[in-house]
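pasting for ref
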Amino acid sequence: MTEQATGAHHPQPRPRSGGQHSAPEQVTGAQSLIRSLEEVGADTVFGIPGGCILPAYDPLMDSTRVRHVLVRHEQGAGHAAEGYALATGKVGVCMATSGPGATNLVTPIADAHMDSVPLVAITGQVASKAIGTDAFQEADIVGITMPITKHNFLVTKADDIPRVIAQAFHIASTGRPGPVLVDIAKDALQAKTTFSWPPAMDLPGYRPVTKPHAKQIREAAKLITQARRPVLYVGGGVLKAKATAELKVLAELTGAPVTTTLMALGAFPDHHPQHLGMPGMHGSVAAVTALQKADLIVALGARFDDRVTGKLDSFAPFAKIVHADIDPAEIGKNRAADVPIVGDAREVIADLIQAVQKEHSEGHQGDYGMWWNDLNRWRETYPLGYDQPGDGSLSPQQVIERIGQLAPEGTIFTAGVGQHQMWAAHFIEYDKPGTWLNSGGAGTMGYAVPAAMGAKAGAPDRAVWAIDGDGCFQMTNQELATCALNNIPIKVAVINNGALGMVRQWQTLFYNQRYSNTVLHSGPDDVNPEARGTRVPDFVKLSEAMGCYAIRCESPDDLDKVIQEANSVNDRPVVVDFIVHEDAMVWPMVAAGTSNDEIMAARDVRPDFGDNEDD
């Protein structure tokens, strides 16, 4: 087990009954599991029963403290647990049976691992004596998930269940959050045991460092006040550490520009004058260029991901690096740090504020006037924008922008992966943390609908919009039936361009417009030309069949009316099929494997920064 990086530290699980130990009592392993989930504060579990996990479902039926949501596919259970975790700040829980049930959780577990989401996945396993015999529905899920979990457990004794559950929740939620798998043999669930709480929490090899080293903080503060062109490069770790208030203080204290990664949108208000937007492959010109021209990058809870850096050896060639992260393995992994700081982002930023204030009191204050002249010129010259289609069809960017503008206060937005994800990042304004949930590191198609379901289950008083593409939507839309049957009224915008949009964009730009297997409304070689232009599937009929309120929008004239109609329906899920122009592209763009210096503001438009800025 290794500690991995970026997040809030939480207290160890405690009993709910005023801190008193519960008296030992005779129960089955399955009863012990459900009691343990109650005691660690799990109130919602997403899952599907099956043979080896079935013993746990019997006492689950009697629990008054744990709600089970019966999903239609285990992948939906995992993504729903992620959405629940991100919307509530608690550990998300999903449950599946052995073999294919467990392997269907692999994608959401990998997703949670990449994006540091606190998740506990509980799987049934064949009886302990049958493990390793290729028994019916056996899979070595512990072995399969070892590279994509923060830690995992195989439980073969009923007596171990409370301790393992307590440890799993503690590991998942502390240090850098992440997924923990608990695989329980069927005979351990069936065996008799005693239950008492709390169990011993002995994890001698697990000691996340949260308090940063004072000397490193002082060095960082000196570099900030000495720099001429600093940038605060903010990653998802700031959200995980609940450090957004501290970040705003630090930014305003220093006067430095701020970029927030795809995973950090909402960590710093989009409307704030110091915010340059999102960096990276599809980041704003100002954010990408600021990092390239910076003489100091202060990375807070970020990991220098390839989508941010572009070609690594050409990234930010003039910059010294202050890299603060709770995971020491991230520091120096991709870019060497001049000042490495291991610690929780909230504590790091709080200490940096004090250290910078001390520098200011001693007369050391950064002068960023010329830097801001450059930054503002880039912002004004190359703003985010889009063109309306010439044929009068719907612009996907406008659809997403209007959904954001007309959504109720505090709406949570989830997104799938691809063009619609980037447009949702660009054209919805995120001023508060916890309002943007997406699959960043893994880029998982099918994330949006089940993640929205989990977010709405965890935050029923908030509106939840899933911004999805027609390709992503066809991977997990069966969870709409789960939403309809469990009173989880999410809203889904299907940005329907009839294609796998982002792949099609690459084919347009890099493959001479050879659209191999990206068109979704026709077969290979268009063997059924009559189907071209028809709606297969018809998302309105499909959604209605699953108990949803469904609308189609094809004209810009109807856009606001349709969105307002969707917002007014709150007694069941709503799906809006937005038929949008198929040739819309995501800009700006840095082509994969190229330098961020080669950013294109739009097609055939390369920004001109002037020779005087290349010093």
